[in-house]
Amino acid sequence: LQKLLHLLQSTDDPLIQEQALITLSNRAAFSVNHDIIRNLDGISVIGRMLSDCIPRVKEKALNALNNLSMNIKNQKEIQVYIVQVCKDIESASLNSDLQLAGLRLLTNMSVTSDYHSMMINSIPCFLHLLSEGNERTQIQALKVLVNLSANPAVTRHILQAQV
């Protein structure tokens, strides 16, 4: 894991970055690796890949963060990327893999109300995706909206949103 993270930091080659992120994502699917990756500063290394302009690299980084987000301690570190993820979802092509990866991460991050306030400004986008997206996009947007609607403080924002 340490060598993969070092490789990810030391290369600008998008193909190598993508493969390293896929491998990290696969490793992050196992809870035994969550603490290890976090303790190796892996969340910030992976999170830096979100500023990459290449959608496939961003998508793979989002998938890795999504797998890591199943851990409360990891969520505390991942939360710093929520606003950026919301912006990426809004600017991504409709129904793209990048958009779906971002929505999946937000679904996990919105299970508790801890980070709902960071997603409020994107509620009109989520409603738009629910209306205009394909079935996969609609399901993911709906999951985020259902999680947000469980918070009475957010319900008002959902009901007042302009789509």
UniProtKB/TrEMBL annotation:
InterPro entries xref list: ARM-like, ARM-rpt_dom, ARM-type_fold, Armadillo, Armcx_regulator
Residue runs in coiled coils: none
One annotated Gene Ontology cellular component of this protein: mitochondrial outer membrane
Protein name: ARM10 protein
Family: Belongs to the eutherian X-chromosome-specific Armcx family.
SMART domains to which the protein is assigned, alphabetical: ARM (SM00185)
Domain called Armadillo repeat-containing: residue spans: 1-163
Main location: mitochondrion
Membrane topology field: Single-pass membrane protein
Cellular compartment(s): Mitochondrion outer membrane
Keyword set, alphabetical order: Membrane, Mitochondrion, Mitochondrion outer membrane, Signal-anchor, Transmembrane, Transmembrane helix
A Pfam family the protein falls into: Arm_2
